[in-house]
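Open question from group meeting: does this chain pack into something compact, or does most of it stay loose? Before anyone orders reagents, we agreed to write out a predicted structure and look at it together. Recording both the input and the output here so the notebook holds the full record.
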Amino acid sequence: MSFKTAKMLVLMVGIAGISMGNQKCQESQDRVLRMDVEVGKIGAQTLRMPSGEVIDFPYLANSLFYMQVMNDPHFVMSNPLPPPTQPTATSKVSAKVKANPIMSEDEAMLYDFGFIDRGAPASSGKVAAKAAAAVADLPTCLYESPQSKLDGNIISFESTWGAGIGIGYGANGSVLPSGGVAGSVNFKQAKLTMGLRASDPLMNILMASAEGVSHQADLKFGLDLLNPALGLDFIYKTPLVDVVKKGMSKSLDAVVKSFTNMMSERGSWDDVWESRVLYQPVIVDNDTTIAFRGGYRNNMKEGDTFVVSNMHYEWEGKACASRLKYAIPTTPTPVAEVEVIKVSPNAAVAKVTRYLIDQVIKPGAQIKILALKQPPKPVKKK
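Structure tokens returned:
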């Protein structure tokens, strides 16, 4: 995005406090896995005050949307993972890591199970077959790509203090007339309409789209519209911030509903979520073990079970240098069922519990939910 990182982080920290109230509500819901997403740009118009000051509403809208995604139970912003390569002891990469053998939590777990070699000591010494791990033959974009990209537009944002008099813009892009009002006014209502899109980053096609509308009447706050130092506080420190956040939250909820309606006959998010095997399977303690994207940031836990299907990826041209035309399972029956035995922030290691067909799991294989581990039921007191 084109926004200054430092400035955005400062504002996001402030906004985070406002969003903490949603956490208890989310914890009470049934557990779902969070989809890895890339957050694109949210388009919006700048706002002009009667004093002539221009408010950078696009900046605020994008900052608020980042926070809404971070707090949404269905999405998580995608993080990079160690590449599926095995540098040799003489390579420049390995030599550099040997000089500074600090590994991330993801790297440490993948190294322990033998999926990567970083030329550094294993953090727990669990690996019995590290040398057996092979270089994964997986196109880079399949490895790096999140499941979806989110972007959209604030179609309209109107905050008014009288009939047709206020600040903002309508759905047709027209700016609300300020009416030449000077001094203080009491705002009466506000409305935000947001359109949100979820697209496939590799196929470059629309996966889901939705619209969220929030409206709040009887705002009961006053403001000196000629104050030359209103800036972003005009929205951030008034009830208008709740209108913006609510519209964004409704858009995210509507996209989730669009996904489930399209991809699940039973209307379950479990049928929407998926991942890919990122590393060549290895043998550890006589068990076939795989690693795939999705860790505790995705709300994954040890004991979750999945089915694995090898995939065929068809490109318009060269892999990753052209659009992905389609991706389909190579067999009607999945290859195997697996159970998660270890999670890191962004990755999971699972062992095969049952083979369903006589086929080897390959990098790029699709991971779909079989069952999420349920918490133990509380014991009723007699």
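Observations to bring back to the group:
The chain has eight helices and 17 strands.
The domain at 92-135+273-371 is CATH 2.40.10.410 (Thrombin, subunit H).
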